[in-house]
Amino acid sequence: MTDLLASIEGSALAVWTRESPSIWAYSTILTLHTFGLAIVAGANAVIDFRLLGVAPRIPVAALGPLFPIMWWAFALNFVTGILLFMADATTKAGQRVFYVKLAMIALAFLVTLAVAKSLRRDADAIAAAIPANLRMLAMLSLLLWTAAIVAGRLLAYQ
Amino acid sequence: MTSLDPLVQWLQATQLSLWINQSTWVWPLCETLHFIGLSLLLGVTGFFDLRLIGFFKRVSVAAAKDLMPLALIGFAINAATGAVFLIGLPGQYVHNRVWWFKLGFILLAGVNALLYETRLSARVLALAPGEDTPGTVKLIGLVSLVSWLAVLYCGRMLPFLGDAF
Fold first, then answer.
1. In this model, does residue B1 exceed pLDDT 70?
2. ipTM reported for the complex, 2 dp
3. Which residues contact B37 (CB under 8 A, 6 or more apart)?
4. Rounded CA gap, B24 and B40, in Å?
5. pTM attached to this predicted model
């Protein structure tokens, strides 16, 4: 395992990400990761707060186009996240909070998928009143994406 | 901005600044809150700006505006935690050009929002769902969106651009 991590960290791509003096290497990858997180967590917050009763004049069905924006931002963070991991693989793999972050993201992603599915499938019912289980998913989504941000941030301090 | 050095030195010597630097948890906590705040701020203003620009037309501008208190909460969190960073390490920011760009973009977003609120908002709030916004309002939305993205860019790139780290 240690050998594998070390070889990942020593790969040309990882070395470039970590050590290139180019503005397009580490700093831009990290910045793109931050843009992605703002879009994913921010768009999720808009949807979740609406489902929890904030801004009730917004038709829930009209929020549908936010999902593709989130999927693209999530894909951006998947790719930039892998690059950031590769650049620092041995350290990251040794940090417990890194696994907490991955778990939070996996759970948050599943919950967001469930919300998206529910909005598509139960559009008519939701337009009348937001079902309790959907509110629960919205609350979970808010908590999990927040937890993912917290874990991600704390990675820098261990 | 070496002319601000006396202020930097004074800030750095305050009890508050010492406390921020000596604590192991204040800085990480504030950084974490700063990221939560920026997500809330960018998510909500981004959505509102996109509506002003002409997306999400099924949502009336008035309805989209009901989310704005959340953006203000995000901004308040980030102004407060940003102040902690500035008090903690004033030189790191004041001597970095990119930090001034960041402040400039925050100011631009603020002036832009004020212009919208005082000159255009009343007319736009009367629009029904599905109705398009006038060109000036689209421009306001675009300026806001670009400004906040630039704020994020400058903030994240602060340690890499500029000259104070």
1. no
2. 0.95
3. B73, B74, B75, B76, B77, B78, B81
4. 26
5. 0.95
